[in-house]
Amino acid sequence: MTNQKNGYLVPMIIIGTLFFIFGFVTWVNGTLIPYLKIACQLESDFQAYLVTTAFFIAYGVMGIPSSYVLNLTGYKKGMAVGLLVMAVGAATFIPAAQARNYNLFLTGLFIIGTGLALLQTASNPYVTILGPIESAAQRISIMGVCNKVAGILAGIIFGYIALKDADHLTASLKAMDAVAKEAQLNELASRVIVPYIIITAVLVVLAVAVILSSLPEINEEDSEEGTDTSASSKTSIFQFPHLFLGALALFVYVGVEVMAADTIISYGKYLNIEMSTARYFSQATLGFMLLGYITGIFTIPRILSQELAMKICAISGAIFTVLAVLTSGATSVLFIALLGLSNSLIWPAVWPLALEGLGKFTKLASGLLVMAIAGGAILPLIYGSLSDKLHNAQTAYWIMLPCYLYILYFGTKGHLVGRKK
């Protein structure tokens, strides 16, 4: 057993590094939304939340194609390709900032999301089937710690670079003539050039490092031994209804997760909280998620089962949503941030529950689950549209309640549909 755990260590370190990269480029979106709203002079919340749409819609478009790429390349080469695609997307931010072109920024985000779709398709099932299925949520929780630490750092770094003087700048722009305003906005846009040059270089170096690493290939068919449903007797992925219910759970989960982390800064501004304070709100949400992941590492499966952890998170998410809408001011912001705690152990639990028994269909199934990450593209955009139409960013948060209730259903009964108990 000790040798087996040691065999997991190197792959876990490599995958943990990749999850750190996921977190850095994903959770910086919470800062990019208010930043680009100022730099590109966007007029509505709907336009601003196209940041999340451009990024996460790539998962919906590229999820299944990514599974076919992995069938051709294997896990290791597929991860390297994903990193190189992300590098192209990061490099796109350079001309986008120079031209202060919002559509080009969105294009860069879509390309980054495309690379991440390939990486996620490979890395999540890799962690799931690297060891015993009953402790998969524990391993994914460890990856979540890497992800959220990176997200917290990304928000702090980019918040300082891009939004350090946002309150003063926003007020000053109103008094400037056209020429001075254009110059100031160009200076603001240029602030992300150097950071994205660094990100591009790091991604290329990591791609080379993954290729040269000792990361082993894994035979998914070996992972179906001992499961309750033998994939060897199945002929189609459509014979696993619990997988599709899990994909829907991931869709709504990613939607509420992104809303909790990426809308909270703008929500603070809506409540007339100064940007110098509100720019740290995303880090509060991610901090609570980090706390939840650490809890999962020490409690799953010894104290809590994956199913029970998901139920607790879903119930608390529903409660915090209601309290966020019914309270006011800083208290309401706190409950949005606390959703990070509720969201923490849903992702680690859905993946192993949805993939259990898939065997030879694991890569294709993983592609389907990665497509569900497009919930982060759709639901925040709906939230932004509701916020604009209702002229009330707080009331629009009601759309999260049915999402948490469905997640509760999947954790209770949905993951058992079509499978022997």
Automatic annotation (TrEMBL):
Q: Which Gene3D superfamilies match?
A: MFS general substrate transporter like domains
The UniProt keyword set, sorted, is: Cell membrane, Membrane, Transmembrane, Transmembrane helix
Keyword check for Nucleus: no
Q: Which domain of life is it from?
A: Bacteria
* Gene Ontology BP term (one): D-glucose transmembrane transport
Cellular compartments per GO CC: plasma membrane
SUPFAM superfamilies (UniProt xref):
MFS general substrate transporter (SSF103473)
Q: Which GO terms describe its molecular function?
A: D-glucose transmembrane transporter activity; galactose transmembrane transporter activity
Instruction: State its location(s).
Output: Cell inner membrane
The record ties this protein, via InterPro entries, to:
Glc/Gal_transptr_bac (IPR005964), MFS (IPR011701), MFS_trans_sf (IPR036259), MFS_TsgA-like (IPR050375)
Question: What is the membrane topology listed in the Swiss-Prot or TrEMBL record?
Answer: Multi-pass membrane protein
User: Which sequence ranges are marked TM in the entry?
Assistant: 7-28, 48-71, 78-96, 102-119, 140-163, 193-212, 243-268, 280-301, 308-327, 333-355, 364-383, 395-412
NCBIfam families with a match to the protein in the record: gluP
Main role? Intake of glucose and galactose.
Record family assignment: Belongs to the major facilitator superfamily. FHS transporter (TC 2.A.1.7) family.
Name listed for the protein in its UniProt record = Sugar MFS transporter
